[in-house]
Amino acid sequence: MCGIAGFYNYRNTAPVDRDVLLRMRDVVPHRGPDGAGAWFSDEGRVALGHRRLSIVDLSETANQPMLDGKDLVVTFNGEIYNHRQLRATLTSSGYNFHTDHSDTEVLLHGYREWGLEGLLKRLEGDFAFAIWDSRKRRLSLARDRVGVKPLYFASAGGAFIFGSEIKSILEHPAVVRDIDPMAMYHYLSFLTTPAPQTMFAGVWKLPAGCWLEVEEGTIGAGRYWDAVPGQGIDPAETKGLSDKALEAFYVDGIRSRLEEAVEKRMMADVPVGVFLSGGVDSSTNVALMSRHSNGPVRTFTIGFKDHQHLNELDHARRIADRYQTDHHEILIEEADMVGYLEQLVHHQDEPIADWVCIPLHFVSKLAKDAGVTVIQVGEGADEQFCGYASYMGYLRLYHRYWHPFRSYLPGFARKGIASLAMTAASMRPSLMVYADIIDRAAHDREHFWSGATVFWENLKRTIVNPEAFQPAPVDADMRATGLLPPDYEETDTFNIIRSFLGPFDAAHPGQDALTRMIHNEFRLRLPELLLMRVDKITMSSSLEARVPFLDDKLVSFTMDIPEAWKTRGGEPKYLLKKAVEDLLPHDLIYRKKQGFGAPMSEWLRGKFGQQARDTIMQSQLMQRGFFKTEAIEAMIEAHRQGSADNSLYIWTLFNLAAWHDYWISK
After folding, report:
1. HSE (CB half, 13 Å, CA atoms) of 353?
2. Helix or strand run (H / E) with residue 278
3. I need a surface site. Which of 97, 412, 496, 590 has the fewest CB within 10 A?
């Protein structure tokens, strides 16, 4: 993994400022401590920068930006796992390679041979890249299918500006820092901003599975991949199978694709390790890595000194002992968290209100200090296989109450019940979530919005002044890409969900509730929350994270498995557990899921609680009219007094206020 940055003066003929490009590149040294490169076009209108974290082909010939002749140049972040196969295909077509085994060079020759969309169709990997084609006067950008690697951009002052991190884009003098109120409104629901929005007005992120092209005077964009049914299993393969045979087909298909995914992600010329929590997903990574490792797998685990009830150290040690790993542990406490907060705000760029970022930082540093450069992580398994208790709860809600409520009660009755529920919730705020669910059902709004929802819509309106949330100006070129649905600029966060599921239902009618939920997660929570926290936090320690459970071949296969099989017998992750029964202890596989978290509720009732309150209430953000400060202060006080657990609300607001004071008002 590396860091990329650059800009193209596509609406003016002014020469690029070389110092600006170097600042954009060098503001992210953590993304590439092993080297730095820059390239400027002959006519002076295009500048590309690169920070290198050397992982595959460590030689200088693999440095970037990399050229192919005088007309193509690429700056690339990520890994192409099938680069050797693509290299062989291109060599047989007459292409000469100048590097020994660099995956970067495959992008250049592949683009020349197949074009952008043909190249993207063939790539297996995690990537964000930009290719300048001087013959076509075109800058092409792309983000990998699932969104493992980030890619941000802006159009300002006649320049198109891009980078792996927002802080690179902010170094360009044409970019003005301010908040995007509508992005903030949606962040309050999802702990993150939905693509293509970011918290910065005029700065955007390319959605997962999308490409973008810039020519003189125009920008265009499109989607080349999506997590949808119909891509992984030929119906003829399962037609007529008995239940026993069908289960074997699913289990064998999951296991073989997962083994291949783990093996592919061990591709490196540097040490590789794995984060081990002791749960099914990380333990499976360890077990499968052990099969393809020449020595002991390096494993890394974190726990808490001050709240040991959250620790899974014993479970992790069992797996480490079983597979004889080179095991490392670290314990942290509240003081460690507080000392890290400013770094957290800096490296996140925009707020990601997931407190898992805190232990993730310390375990990442542990791995880097131990000499590891690549780490495998377990994200994506719970989303595909229904591993969360909340998912099971949403499914029970849908089948037992939601569907009957909407199917058998007339509209006027549904709305009347919803009105009564909201009245009850206004007197007892603890009922607000239930009232919101009833309100959604009454007005034909999806019951599931995200696996991580903070402020449900009705609760959100108790702390905000909706009239203060006015859309930020949007560049005409950005509008022309079609990436930003117009209703994202309204104070109704359901518009985000409708933008995913409306087209999905039209193209794939009749899908079960879980399949629709999973598609939704692949469009929002996975790429913009879970994978962004992994990328930003691991890369802050110059550590590359790889995600085998999100290999697109595995994802395409699992999207064709119906809900009834993923939750067979009421067992979460039924098929995945069956697929790894020979790898892990039975009691570990079937124990209650604990989850990777942090004792934020307790910390917010201690000394840090006062710090968080002061940060929120004294922030200049609170002076801009967006929030009802009295309601927020009451929410904080209720938590500190122990009458309610408002930790997620407070942490979400703390991240927002700290971000605003660091990046905007500072």
Report:
1. 27
2. none
3. 412
pTM of model > 0.90: yes
Please choose, from the candidates 333, 295, 327, 298, the residue with its C-alpha nearest in 3D space to the C-alpha of residue 313.
327
Do the Cβ atoms of 505 and 245 come closer than 8 Å?
A: no
Alpha helices in 137-179 (DSSP H): 166-170
Cis peptide before 150 (omega within 30 of 0): no
**Range with the poorest average pLDDT among 503-512, 588-597, 598-607:** 588-597
Closest CA to 596 of 437, 328, 363: 363
* DSSP symbols for 198-240: -SBTTEEEPPTTEEEEEETTEEEEEE-----SSSS--HHHHTT
CB 551 within 8 A of CB 267: no
The set of long-range contacts for 399-407, using a CB threshold of 8 Å and a minimum separation of 24, is 399/513, 402/437, 402/441, 402/447, 405/438, 405/441, 406/441, 406/444
Of 416 and 8, the structure prediction assigns the larger pLDDT to 8
Here the tokens at position 258 are 């997962």
3 state SS of 302: strand
Cα distances from 45 to residues 15, 129, 131, 264, 566, in angstroms, run 5, 19, 14, 38, 52
Complete edge-to-edge strand list for the sheet that includes strand 218-223:
66-68, 72-80, 125-133, 138-143, 210-215, 218-223
Distance CA 534, CA 544 (A): 9
The residue written with tokens 């925009």 in the block is 350
What does the pLDDT read at residue 528?
98
pLDDT category of residue 166 using cuts at 50, 70 and 90: very high
The Cα 434–Cα 418 span in angstroms is 10
Full strand arrangement of the beta sheet holding 272-275: 326-332, 298-304, 272-275, 374-376, 544-546
User: Residue 471, preceding bond cis, omega within 30 degrees?
Assistant: no
**Residue whose C-alpha is closest to residue 205's, from 219, 192, 191, 194:** 194
Between β-strands 218-223 and 210-215, what pairing exists: parallel, antiparallel or unpaired? antiparallel
What pLDDT is stored for residue 666 in this prediction?
Answer: 78
What is the full DSSP assignment across 17-79? -HHHHHHHHHT-GGG-BTEEEEEE-TTS-EEEEEEE---S--SGGG-SSEEETTTEEEEEEEE
d(CA 10, CA 398): 50
254 and 265 in contact (C-beta within 8 Å)? no
Element (H, E) at 446: none
SS3 of residue 473 by DSSP: coil
Q: H or E element: which one contains 244?
A: helix 243-264
Report yes or no: 458 and 435 within 8 Å, Cβ to Cβ.
Answer: yes
DSSP state of 88: H
Pairing of strands 125-133, 138-143: antiparallel
15 within 8 A of 28, measured Cβ to Cβ: no
Question: CA 15 to CA 320: how far, in whole Å?
Answer: 56
- The pLDDT assigned to 395 comes to 93
* CA separation, residue 500 to residues 551, 553, 631 (Å): 21, 22, 32
* 187 burial level (CB within 10 Å; 0-12, 13-18, 19+): buried
Is 421's pLDDT higher than 80? no
Instruction: List phi, psi (to 5°) of 197.
Output: -75, 150
Closest of 182, 205, 199, 154 to residue 531, by C-alpha: 205
